[in-house]
Amino acid sequence: MKRRSSSTIPFGYKLMEDGVHLEEIEDELKALNKIVPLVKNKVLSLREGAMWIEYDTGRSISHTGLRKIADRYE
Questions:
Q1: How far is CA 46 from the centre of its chain?
Q2: Which of 7, 28, 44, 70 could be stapled to 12 by a disulfide with Cβ–Cβ 3.0 to 4.6 Å?
């Protein structure tokens, strides 16, 4: 469980009923962990990665949102 730190709910999380904490969404985080390394290694473009994540999870993410996540990914 993660504490909310901004008004934006990050991809892979949902706001809990208390309105303060975030709950992980396992399927979305697994999709990110699968796609981000491919984007960083230039196997997929950011747009291709974003489309794949939306297809896999049903939740949309922009290519710029994916880039921000990839930049923070270790």
A1: 12
A2: 28
pLDDT digits (tens, 9 = 90+) for 4-60: 888 888 999 999 999 889 999 999 999 999 999 999 999 999 999 999 999 999 999
Contact 1, 23 (CB under 8 A): yes
Residue labelled with tokens 């291709």? 48
DSSP 3-state of 13: strand
Q: What is the DSSP track for 11-53?
A: TTEEE-TTSSEEEE-HHHHHHHHHHHHHHHTTSS-HHHHHHHH
Where do we find the tokens 């009923």? 17
Angle subtended at Cα 12 by Cα 31 and Cα 68, rounded to the nearest 5 degrees = 85
The continuous run of DSSP H or E covering 23 comes out as strand 21-24
